[in-house]
Amino acid sequence: MAKQGKTIQFRSLVASSVFILFAFSGFSQVNFDGLWGGKITSNGLEVEVNFKVESEAKRVLLSVPLQKVNDQVGSGLEIKGDSIFFDYSNFNASYQGVYNSVTKEIRGEWTQGLSTSLNLKRIKKKSTIVRSQVVEPPFSYTYENLKFHNEEANIDLAATLTIPEGEGPFPLAVLVSGSGPQDRNSEILDHKPFLVIADHLSSNGIAVLRYDDRGVKNSGGIFSESTSADFATDAAAAINYARSLTNIDSTKIGIIGHSEGGLIAPRVAAYYNNLDFIVSIAGPAVPITELMTIQNKLIFEKSGMSEEGLDIIESRLPGIYNIVNQDKEPKELFDTLIGHVKSFYEALPENDQKLLGASSTAYYTAISRTFFSPWFRYFLAYDPGPTWQKVTCPVLALNGSEDIQVSAKENLSAIKRNLEIAGNTNHKEVELKGFNHLMQQCKVCSINEYALIETTFDPSVLELITEFIQGI
Fold first, then answer.
1. How far is CA 268 from CA 140, 275, 286, 409, in A?
2. Would you give the distance in Å from CA 25 to the centre of its chain?
3. Confidence of residue 43 (pLDDT cuts 50, 70, 90)
4. Which of 360-364, 438-442, 456-460, 464-468 has the lowest mean pLDDT?
5. How far apart are CA 213 and CA 230, in angstroms?
6. N or C terminus: fewer CB in 10 A for the chain?
7. CA 45 to centroid of chain Cα atoms
């Protein structure tokens, strides 16, 4: 889910194996000092890297804007004639290249486990991440930073309220974020989707309340001890606060939930408030064990896993999840779980194993921290279907056809089926062709691509949401 999306790990920058030996030449010394830039191709994506050579200090500073790596100090700088070598021992990487006086570039290779071609040219300034939807004043609406109280949890949540110009009353949308600790902008990889959504809606006559998750920034509570059920109480408290505002239309207050937020919205509608609308963006509706199995299969398919490996994921992961779903303490499940995880890992072809971890023990260690957290155990055991069957307010459900975290086909059909069981006659399910989990038009459509796309939240999707709320 959205918040499971991660910055590309540095180890994944190398995608192919190329082996070239460079012989240091006896040509006149080249002045390598200064800033150099190039691109490493990884899984079909181009990642920009910058190097600042400081020969007198005998070091090279590495910056990777995509990964928020800035001036990482390298060591072992060697310059001989037109050849250069340096390394980064803390992550087992090195670069060697030869300056080409005709093309005025360093032609070389980056080695980090595997090797890939990396040619560098002089640049005047370091690369930056470009975002096409930058929200800056002046605004055509008013905004207020505030706090509202969750009585059930006895915590205060820090929020921003944006209200359109005019007398009102205005419809209002509460924005509810996906999994992982999120601030009120739902910031991920330098994208701020909730800020973009709030700016668009409040510029078009719709008030928006968005808040920092509990335990994040200025909000009270402890995030690591909380579950989706706890987060639903926070969203319900936001709705209660919204209903207390005088310039808001009390008949048009709802939730826009992304990913896990699309799971929380129907909980609020069913168990806390009779919401006036729900917009589910990449929200899950199938049992979460099924969701996670599909998610893993799609993600590893994008990573190049073999058909045999994908079949093993599909057949064995549900059994592992069922162990975690037992109503027992983690220490009681440890031996059984680690046995199944090792068996699962060792059943995979060797190349597929490397996609999960260096060893079955390393893989288990990595996942056990997540598997035994209160949030994951609650989430994994949850089936959103029965809750959706209690939702009678208008619903707009949006999923991207290329979403590999919450697949469109299975989840949209489940939302539709369950709303029909509820007797809900005002719902619309839309599969957005070519869109990923973050509502971006994508090309490779992997998680790694999120950060490379300039658009934060596609304008056409903003229009769909706006038209839906305005039409209620």
1. 31, 8, 18, 24
2. 46
3. low
4. 360-364
5. 11
6. C
7. 17
Tokens of 424: 């809900």
Beta bridge partners of 99: 106
Q: Quick one: CA dihedral 445, 447, 448, 450, positive or negative?
A: positive
Q: For residues 46 and 40, is the Cβ–Cβ distance under 8 A?
A: yes
Q: Say how far apart CA 38 and CA 127 lie, in whole Å.
A: 10
pLDDT greater than 60 at residue 22: no
Distance CA 167, CA 19 (A): 68
Could you tell me what percentage of the chain is helix, strand and coil, using 3-state DSSP and rounding each to the nearest 5? 35, 30, 35
Q: What separation in angstroms does the CA of 248 have from each of 69, 144, 280? A: 44, 15, 22
User: The tokens 């370091």 sit on which residue?
Assistant: 126
Cβ neighbours around 264 below 10 Å, total: 29
- pLDDT of amino acid 44: 67
Distance CA 172, CA 186 (A): 18
Encoded tokens for 334? 């440890």
SS3 labels along 292-349: HHHHHHHHHHHCCCCHHHHHHHHHHHHHHHHHHCCCCCHHHHHHHHHHHHHHHHHHCC
Cα distance between the two ends of the chain: 28
- Cβ-count burial 114-147 (b if 16+ within 10 Å, e if not): ebbbbbbeebeebbeeebebeeeeeeebeeeeee
* Residues written for the chain: 472
Contact 422, 391 (CB under 8 A): yes
CA atoms of 140 and 8, how far apart (whole Å): 36
**Rounded to 5 degrees, what are φ and ψ at 358?**
-70, -25
Q: Share the mean pLDDT of the chain.
A: 91
Q: Give the pLDDT confidence of 170-216 residue by residue, as tens digits.
A: 999 999 999 999 999 999 988 999 999 999 999 999 999 999 999 99
Pick from 316, 318, 299, 364: which is nearest to 338 by CA? 364
Integer Cα distance of 232 and 173 in angstroms: 15
Q: Which pLDDT belongs to residue 115? A: 84
Amino acid letter, 55: S
8 A C-beta contact, residue 261 and residue 196: no
Which alpha helices (H) appear in 43-192, and where do they start and end? Answer: none
> Cis omega before residue 138 (within 30°)?
yes
